[in-house]
């Protein structure tokens, strides 16, 4: 049984017709509208900045659905979040009985057709006041599952980054840079990758393509997620109190009380006998600095 047949069986012919008309409208508009696309990229950045296993998250647009502007599947938690985006502060962005019905249908489909554990439906609007007003109109028994959220509209990526503090913070983490031109360039590359194909793709796939397109690679913050701190470094650091190890952009940063040494991630492990002879914190940091020197010279 396909999805349209499932909807007709569960909700009747009129609901099935509505589902297909929603899809038709989405295909004809294929929006790639700026508001929806900017929001999609912001969500891609949020996942990359806060999660480790990017292949567990899938994102798509204009699926056959009652809530179809954006869909994010979290396979790690068996969760699905669907967004209906309205770049408006007027009637088009208002919570209505029709929206409520569509949200109810989509939640039922997610749980009973796609076997999703947790399904969320979000009415996304570009007015903070409208989002708050909509939230108050959502029936009490549906709040937390049906939501209305605010996302700002800007006509340029750089204005959006300046206006949206969380997006800027996420981009800075992803790029391991706070340079506005770098993070705006990274955003634009992701936007191009997203617009090139809005069929279901994992967030990992999107960044793999983006990193190939970026010359040079602007997504250096993601390298830290690929780094595994070597056992010798973990064991030696554990011998001293207050030491922290932070993976950086292709390196390890060993920190104690604000004093830090940065060494390349590809550094060779020291001789075990040399490590065994180190008994003081001063000796240990001297070793770490010696490991960093070849990179500084070159």
Order of helices and strands: HHHEEEHEHEHHHEHHHEEEHH
Number of strands: 9
Spans with pLDDT under 50 lasting ≥5 residues? none
Mean pLDDT: 88
Order of strands side by side in the largest beta sheet? 5-4-3-2-1-6
> Which class do the helix and strand fractions yield?
alpha+beta
Major beta-sheet overview? 6 strands, mixed
Beta-strand content bin: 15-25%
Tally of separate helices: 13
- Rg, rounded, reads 24 Å
Helix coverage percent? 40-55%
Count up the domains. Answer: 2
Quaternary structure:
single chain
Report, as a whole number of angstroms, the end-to-end distance.
Answer: 63 Å
Shape: elongated
Descriptive account of the structure:
The model has no long low-confidence stretch (mean pLDDT 88). This protein has 298 residues and is α+β, with helices and mostly antiparallel strands. Strand 3 (79-86), helix 4 (97-112) and strand 4 form a beta-alpha-beta unit. The protein folds into two domains: 3-222, no CATH class; 227-297, Metal Transport, Frataxin, Chain A. It is 50% helix and 16% strand. Helix 3 crosses helix 7, helix 3 packs across helix 8 and helix 7 (165-175) packs across helix 8 (180-196). The strands form two sheets. A six-stranded mixed β-sheet has the order 5-4-3-2-1-6, sandwiched between helices.
Write out key terms for the chains shown:
single chain, 298 residues, alpha+beta, Metal Transport, Frataxin, Chain A, 2 domains, six-stranded mixed beta sheet, three-stranded antiparallel beta sheet, 16% strand, elongated
